[in-house]
């Protein structure tokens, strides 16, 4: 086996992962959820950081509302006792850039 990529950016351990609509979501002990997309070179690009939990994020669930309309809903649960619902709208994710404005959260 060989390592084919790594997620770098969380300040503490990654506790949960979910993959939906070509996006990888990671929940961490740092209280954040990060949204990743794999680049052509195999590396992962962080597209967005979701903040709002006060304690570690322990669970993630995502529902694609239709890849054709570019909407994904994600719920994150943490040890602060809160469940947060996020709605992600994205445009063309074929050529992501860490500084691009491809994602919109509501």
Automatic annotation (TrEMBL):
Transmembrane segments: none annotated. SMART domains: WD40. The keyword Signal applies. Residues 1-29 form the signal peptide. Keywords: Signal, WD repeat. Pfam families: WD40 (PF00400). SUPFAM superfamilies: WD40 repeat-like. Coiled coil: none annotated. InterPro entries: JINGUBANG-like, WD40/YVTN_repeat-like_dom_sf, WD40_repeat_dom_sf, WD40_rpt. The keyword Signal applies. WD repeats lie at residues 7-37. It comes from the Eukaryota. PANTHER family: F-BOX AND WD40 DOMAIN PROTEIN, F21J9.19. This is Protein JINGUBANG-like. It comes from Momordica charantia. The lineage of its organism: Eukaryota, Viridiplantae, Streptophyta, Embryophyta, Tracheophyta.
């Amino acid at each position: 086996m060989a390592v084919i990529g790594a997620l770098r950016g969380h300040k503490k351990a990654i506790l949960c992962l979910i993959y939906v609509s070509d996006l990888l979501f990671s929940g961490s002990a740092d209280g954040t959820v990060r949204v990743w997309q794999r680049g052509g070179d195999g590396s992962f690009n962080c597209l967005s950081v979701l903040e709002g939990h006060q304690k570690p994020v322990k669970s993630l669930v995502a529902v694609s509302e239709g890849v054709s309309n570019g909407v994904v809903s994600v719920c994150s649960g943490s040890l602060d006792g809160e469940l947060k619902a996020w709605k992600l709208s994205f445009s063309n994710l074929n050529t992501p850039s860490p500084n691009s404005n491809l994602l919109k959260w509501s």
